[in-house]
Amino acid sequence: MITCDNENEHAARVRAAKESMPTEDRLIEMGARFKIISEPSRLKILLALSGGELCVEHITEAVGGNQSAVSHQLKILKDNKIVKGRRDGKNVLYSVSDWHVLTMIGAAKEHLDCNE
C-alpha cells in the first residue's frame, strides 16, 4: 500500500470534504438543474433573458428559433422555476426567476474565454 507524505493534512481535507458534501438527494437535484440548463436552446433563451424580460416573439427573434420550439423550451424552464411569465395585455413577458442560474451560465461563459 502506498502511503501519503501529508497524511494528517489530507485526512483533514477528506474530513472537510465529507462534512460539506450534499446529501444524495441534493446531488441528484443539482445534477437535474445542470441538465435543464445545459440544453443549447434553453441556454440561448436564458442568455436572451439575461438582459431583461421579453415576449415569446422577441425571444424567438433573439435566439433564431421557431416560436413553437421556443414556447416548448420556455415551458420546461417555467416548470422548473427558472423563468417566470407575467401577462401584459395580450402578451406574456418572460424573465429569469432564478438568478443563480445566470451566475452559473456566466461562469461557464467566462471559463470558455480562459486560456488556462
Give structural attributes.
6 helices; 3-stranded antiparallel β-sheet; about 65% helix; single chain; alpha+beta; about 120 residues; elongated
Describe the secondary-structure layout.
Blueprint: H1 7-20, H2 24-38, H3 40-49, E1 54-55, H4 56-63, H5 67-79, E2 83-88, E3 91-96, H6 99-112
Antiparallel strand pairs: 1-3, 2-3
Helix pairs in contact: 3-4
Could you characterize what this model shows?
- This protein is α+β, with helices and mostly antiparallel strands.
- Helix content is 64%, strand content 12%.
- The protein contains 6 helices and 3 strands.
- It has helices at 7-20, 24-38, 40-49, 56-63, 67-79, 99-112; strands spanning 54-55, 83-88, 91-96.
- A 3-stranded antiparallel sheet has the order 1-3-2.
- The longest helix is centred in the first third of the chain and has 15 residues, at 24-38.
- The protein is elongated.
- The two termini are 34 Å apart.
**Which sequence of SSEs, written as H and E, runs from N to C?**
HHHEHHEEH
| Rg of Cα set | 20 Å
Low-confidence stretches: none
Q: Give the biggest sheet.
A: 3 strands, antiparallel
Q: Would you count the extended β strands for me?
A: 3
> Strands of the largest sheet, in order across it?
1-3-2
User: Into which percent range does the helicity of residues fall?
Assistant: 55-70%
For the termini, the CA-CA separation is: 34 Å
Instruction: Give the overall form.
Output: elongated
Total number of helical segments? 6
Q: Given the helix and strand composition, which structural class is it?
A: alpha+beta
Strand content: 5-15%
Mean pLDDT: 92
